[in-house]
Amino acid sequence: MSSLFDLTDRVALVTGSSRGIGNALARALADAGATVVLNGVNEERLKDAAAAMAADFPPGRVHSVAFDVTSDAEAARGVAWVEEQVGPLEILVNNAGIQHRVPMLDLDVKDWERVISTDLTSAFLVGREAARFMIPRGHGKIINICSVQTDLARPTIAPYIAAKGGLRNLTRAMTAEWAASGLQINGIAPGYIHTEMTQNLVDDEQFNSWILGRTPANRWGTVRDLAGPAVWLASSGSDFVNGQTIFIDGGMTVVV
Ligand code: NDP
């Protein structure tokens, strides 16, 4: 592999990687040589995911730490654990996220806050803790997983749209404060990707045909489609890419 994209000896923490996109991104980073740390809140699922991935790599390359990304104290504990138990954190992927589908007039403020804190505040909390270690070392990569909803709106997912739009601007704010210290902070905005989170949409015939019609590539994305962009943004191949959000969406956001 070209050394530009080689992640050997780099430690990567991927939040929300017990399944779905986060799990696939952690595997892609490990395939590129990184030592990866998986995260989630459900300890049983996280343990199983780490064991399954560890079986495919040499000993010591796959770790896991359960913590809730919405908690200030937990985020600090999780990042400190990585630094102490695994090594200097070089790559952080802020991926953990949830959705809650309710029309806004029926939306409870508790559900609004739950989505905002999981999909937006978490990236500030974990990103800040990671940056405390990365800045003195003068390098580090942070990748924030946004969405096409960063730019587009649909009914019933208002807090998700607000959070993902905010995440794109948080990516810029982190860049404004930390790029001069050698950090690159960028976003990946996936289109509709077939995972557990979207299984109900894949199964909904009407929605499914709307997605296919709305996506120039005429298909759902797969977690594999996100692997290359993530490895690139985590590698030294992207060292002068700062504050960008890259849409991996089969062209969805460039057509009406
Ligand atoms: P999944 O529902 O498949 O997985 C979500 C992951 O986040 C799980 O590992 C879950 O852990 C973890 N998680 C949820 N809440 C917390 C928390 N408070 N603390 C720590 N971990 C948490 O989601 P996807 O893989 O589909 O989505 C991943 C990201 O990609 C999200 O940010 C989503 O918004 C974004 N995205 C997804 C798209 C799609 O089409 N699927 C499209 C665009 C963006 P646990 O197993 O413990 O619950």
From TrEMBL:
GO molecular function annotations of the record: gluconate 5-dehydrogenase activity
Top-level taxonomic group: Bacteria
EC number(s) reported in the record: 1.1.1.69
SUPFAM superfamilies attached to this UniProt entry: NAD(P)-binding Rossmann-fold domains (SSF51735)
Gene3D superfamilies registered for this protein in UniProt: NAD(P)-binding Rossmann-like Domain
Enzyme class: oxidoreductase
The entry's keywords: Oxidoreductase
Keyword Oxidoreductase: yes
Pfam family, one: adh_short_C2
Similarity comment: Belongs to the short-chain dehydrogenases/reductases (SDR) family.
Protein name: Gluconate 5-dehydrogenase
Organism: Pseudarthrobacter siccitolerans
